[in-house]
Amino acid sequence: MKSPSSPLVSIIIPCYKAEKELPEALASIHSQSYSHWEVIAVNDAWADSTQTIIENFSKAHPNHRVVFEKHFQNQGLGATRNTGMSLARGELIAFLDHDDIWEPHHLEVGLSQIQKKNGDISYSTVQTFQTTPLNKAGLWGPTPADLAQFPQTLFERNFITPSSVIITRSLQNRLGPLAPMRCCEDHDYWLRAATLGARFVTSDTITVNYRTNTEGKLSSKTELMLKQDIEVQKRNWYSKAFLESSKRKGIANNYFLLSCYYRSQGMFKSWIYLLLSVYWYPFSFSRALKFLYSSWNPLKA
């Protein structure tokens, strides 16, 4: 789909250890029903065939602008996406991680949501998988309760996957760059967008396949992600878009998850994080009982 009035979409692909999965991501761009796009791929200082793969993709798509950039020092996802956005020319920006795969109507559905609902940022639930999209592992996204209480629930947990997001250039200009963090910079970005009063729109149509088992996937680094997410929540503590109860509940939940993680590792400090969770937001009696029960019965955890 393309017309003279169709806005250009800049597709930002951060790449790290990308050569194995990147061709599938690019193939899903090639298959898009919406054809007015450009690709900005940024290699975050990893020596592999990523540049060759992008150059071959560019040759196969002479009517599209395809840009390759490389960091000479590893800087993390936030900085890599920032480099991509600084090179973008589109009126809209779409994020696609190098190991994820779009359905052919992804851009068309996202743009339609933005245009029909006068949105600033579109997103959706994603289908998770391990080896191929046919190997479905589950769904990840907002629950009906999350949507009913949005944006309060967004502070409590990040249910927006970057590869599902399309954002207007006007909102991106207001937000500025992502925080130069190793992970959870996306959650910080969404919270900052909510603070600015951005209009989030979502669709019931699932158009993204999110791969869960690649070598460099940060989602496998539980301890780091939980600690970084607590940092993100505290950085956004003074936002007036969120109730204090939502802020406390979100931070407490991350401390509780850290406590459970340390308990699973047999670490005594799990009790410290359990107390921190109680300090931030006294949780339900049933959840406390579950924690205590699993502590004494590891096989039940």
Which segments are poorly predicted (pLDDT under 50) over 5 or more consecutive residues?
296-301
- Kindly estimate the percentage of residues that lie in beta strands according to DSSP: 15-25%
Radius of gyration, in angstroms, nearest whole number: 20 Å
The SSE order reads EHEHEHEEHEEEHHEHHEEHHHH
SS-derived structural category: alpha/beta
Shape: globular
Q: Number of helical runs? A: 12
CATH class of the largest domain: Alpha Beta
**Average pLDDT level:** 91
Count of distinct structural domains: 2
Tell me the helix content.
Answer: 40-55%
Largest sheet: 7 strands, mixed
Tell me the CATH architecture of the largest domain.
Answer: Alpha-Beta Complex
Query: By CATH's scheme, which homologous superfamily of the largest domain applies?
Result: Spore Coat Polysaccharide Biosynthesis Protein SpsA, Chain A
Which strand order do you get reading across the main beta sheet? 3-2-1-4-9-6-10
This entry's quaternary arrangement is single chain
Distance between the termini: 50 Å
Please provide the count of β strands: 11
